[in-house]
Fold each of these.
Amino acid sequence: MLSDFDKVLDRTNTNCEKWDNLVEVFGRDDVVPLWVADMDFASPPEVVAALSERVQHPTYGYTFVSQSLRKAAVGWVSRRYGWDIRPEWIVITPGVVPGLAMSVLAYTQPGDGVIVQSPVYPPFFRVVESNGRRLLNNELKMGPDGRYGIDWGDFQAKLDGGARLVLLCSPANPVGRVWTDEELTRLAGMCGSRDVIVVSDEIHCDIVYSGARHIPFGSLGEGAAHRSLTFMAPSKTFNVQGLTTSMAIVPSEQLRERLIHVQLGLGMAESNVFGLAALEAAYRQGDAWLDRALEYLEGNLRYLEDFTASRLSPITVVPAEGMYVVWLDCRGLGLGADALRDFLANRARVGLNDGRMFGPGGEGFARINIGCSRAVLREGLERIEAALRQLR
Ligand SMILES: Cc1ncc(COP(=O)(O)O)c(C=O)c1O
């Protein structure tokens, strides 16, 4: 039976980055776009209804973060993660990336070391380097089972080298990991003993597949809670990225005040009236829709895994425990990085993210987005299969 998610929604001519910006990015307009991290699905009807209702009132002036919104967010975090946060811990930011940048400004000084773990979402590098902080890259390592893990010896060395802050990507985009309790607890302990703050970007946390469980960093215990910020957002989960609204959960009053101080200093304290409406509706009413979306996405993931294993050799799928962006290991093709990019865009005519954009460790990889109808995914994979046949 076809589900709502099978419906191919035409997103062209909506100023949609994924579908309308292909020539700029791939040099041609006929690639199947499986790149930028949003989904081709309609947002939940409850979110669309809340936005429509707000649009109906024809004034769009200044807004504020209501207690009712805080309550909705508290409920979401409690229902989905069993973490009881207080309404006042929430700081609304105009997106997670601005929140990461504000955190770097709030908790470090120019020249201070900030740990990131490549391959990782590119703004992690930018918010450190553009602000004159020292990038300490603790590169993630692929284990014999193809799963990535943390190089703990190197992590300790980076802490010893004077790191003041860690930008943690949890789950880890693009490598597919949903960090375990053991890993997070170990990281929290190591950072705690050096009084290093952890800023945990959990924007993808709601998209986790069977067998994995997301644990918010701030829920690990008192110590971790008071030395960390946990960023969450409805954006990836409910396809409202363009509304640029997210939240930092900051249990420590001192850290919260510093964040707000920087936010005010940058003049970024105002919120988006539609972003807030969407966040509240999604967190209050989005559970059932998300559960259905997760089922569909997991079906797409299994489809991708089966297709790749049987028809796209030597390309392999790096085990994905969460997220609709999935890391493909293309090193077996033996192509140089430029040749791989050319192969995917010009021979296969698929638009994937070039692994190199995720920093050291990304060469020879590509990131595919499975947040689309299965028919679109199938088309993309069949194109890669046909191009591979010509290569052989
Ligand atoms: C790990 C991660 N953080 C942040 C973002 C973007 O956050 P925002 O649009 O809220 O700034 C993305 C988008 O792909 C992401 O993958």
Amino acid sequence: MPNPPLTLGLIGAGRIGRVHAEHLRCRLPEADLIAVADVDEAAARACAGQFRIPVSTADYREILADPKIQAVVVCSSTDTHTEVIQAAAAAGKHIFCEKPIAPDLVRIDQALAAVHRAGVLLQVGFNRRFDANFRRVRQAVVQGEIGEPHQLRITSRDPAPPPLEYVRRSGGIFLDMTIHDFDMARFLVGSEVGEVYATGSVRVDPAIGAAGDWDTATVVLKFVNGVVGVIENSRRAVYGYDQRVEVFGSGGSINADNNYPNAAVVSGARSIHRDLPLNFFMDRYLESYLQELREFVHAVQTGGPSPVSGEDGRAPVVLALAARKSCELNRPVRVADLG
Ligand SMILES: NC(=O)c1ccc[n+]([C@@H]2O[C@H](COP(=O)([O-])OP(=O)(O)OC[C@H]3O[C@@H](n4cnc5c(N)ncnc54)[C@H](O)[C@@H]3O)[C@@H](O)[C@H]2O)c1
């Protein structure tokens, strides 16, 4: 007998909340999204109307008070995550929470303690782990297809910088952008990072520098198992969203290239070219957003474990804080020194 669908509520009906709403309503028969909350009541109503969600409210506590709802998907602004996680855990709801849990470790630890006390399942929204190409790279590492891993390279460049107002509130490039790459690095290598050396520069827009951030960064990671990794970030790649990884090892290497909207190659007298890669994360990672929710529902229905645990949510924040400190001090920083 298949399980009855998991009953869910959505908290936060903004950009990513609507992506998850569509997947839960239209592409995951094992899920039943029955309510949506957003402090912006019009946003909640619009989302409910678009995806035929029966209930909309401005107060997420109404969702937590509904005994029919077994799990929540938290897509509200980052500064609300720990409050919502603690309230949801106290109400006995399983929790999918968008990344990051929070930009600071004290609040993360409070939220994780509440989850632990309540015995509910928490999955953090590091969706790139669910991308089919990156999964294949991880599989190659696990199965020893490239021998012992020695080096990791992650290239992660956005097509264009976000608005300045967003940059000012983002917590900086390492917490906002590199955080996905820190998660990918831990996922692909399967080891913790012991030391971080980061350097940043302003090469794209002086206004980003004036806002106290960097728009160009390179991070060197020394993993506890001896692997050395490099992450390259830029806020602007003129050819579009540049998302590639390579793991090199004693027996070879495996790499994942960018995803393209088509596979056509135009050959002419002077050059051979193709169209640009998929433009940004909503296109490039769409299937991974679906797969992470599919696996969340499965984990809840089968009693776990969480595919991306609270600890997996915490570790990239530690690495981001270490990178920022390294950049400011202009020297390597031991991760253990940050707790
Ligand atoms: N995994 C990814 O690739 C990815 C992509 C985008 C965003 N995110 C994360 O998702 C979260 C939301 O980002 P977004 O781009 O959708 O932002 P957004 O601003 O478009 O949406 C956030 C929504 O939350 C609502 N909200 C704020 N406080 C609330 C509360 N207390 N209760 C209910 N609703 C509340 C806002 O009104 C807004 O509609 C952020 O934490 C962000 O880091 C993750």
